[in-house]
## 1
Amino acid sequence: MPPSGIAPERRPPRAAIGLLLAGLAVFGLLAVLVLLAEPALLAIDRPLSEALRADRGDVLAEVMRGISLLGSRAVIGGILLALTLWAIVTRECQRTVGIVLVVFAVAMVLEWTLKAGIGRLRPEEAFALTRVTTAAFPSGHALGSAAVYAILAVALGGGARGHALVWLLIAAIGVSRVVLGVHWPSDVLGGIALGAAIAAGGVLALRGHRLDPKRCPGGHGT
């Protein structure tokens, strides 16, 4: 018998709790460094940025733009809109889809709030291949993709290989923002860390439910 009569699939996953705490810790540390010791942080950020941009040609730039687009609000929002319409039409997995939407909303609100509150400047315009006007920390592309793609990987019931591919995509999106010259590496790392923490919170709320009509609350079978 599981402890306290809790079914195994209802137990809070330890990995999600660990990711939540680790993500918040890493983000908190980076936020403090940005606010209180940015020159020291730039001493690390700048060489890394220059190394990633060293061999940036036209072909690589276009590839990076394409990868970066996968982390944009337009693409992520389009995916979630399609998922929402499916849940409404089929009346399946509505609670699960709702949790994914809340994760996305929390990520967007935190991005806007933190950028406005911290106000970190982006890299010099001379390095940028894409023009942006908002603050730098945390990276919105990294934050949004980590939050949404990570929880979707869990909700879709992906195995270890699927999860690895999702995190590889998230990392590639983050790298693309540095190569394009619109973020420092610490902006990206902060965004991924906070996004991972938000996704972990969403996973705890899912409590074993997946995008499967037979298991999702809110479907025809419930």
## 2
Amino acid sequence: MAYTEKHIMTKMSFIGKLDDTEHTITVEDSDEDTHHYTVELDGRVYNVDAHSMPSEIVNVLIDNKSYDLDLERSNPTDSLDGRFGVRVRGRVIYLEMLDERRKKMKDAQMTRFSESGLVRIVSPMPGKILRVLVSEGQGVKEGDGLVVVEAMKMENELRAPRDGVVKSVVGKPGDSVDSSSLLLTID
């Protein structure tokens, strides 16, 4: 009797941003082959066959039209930076693409000012504080790590949205937090 591995079908949702307009994208892979996908973009469905090449080029067949896509990530070391350029048929398109979880994480890092100019860093979703990387009175630069929250079995490092000084640290490692729970403030 031959062993056959059953393919598990996956469906993922993304938020894409092109020219300041957000688009909803759902990608579902085929049950038979991992190179075939059904992609829904703003309600329109496309059949896609995609193959990665040895370089950064992806050969894509979309509704029987062939495209070679040269992809270049803006900042490959930052998991919350979904910006990249796509070169296709001599034209470069710059866009941003994040799955729903990373979009929530990025939105949580967006600057939230009160009237006093404080930046409120809040948990993007329910989870647990793993590490607090700063202390009260500490100066921080934009992009510095502040706190690590575990959510959905993933570690998510929240970063400083701008330069400032840590005014208060509310949580400590081991604390459970709800979505939008205040973690710390920066002035």
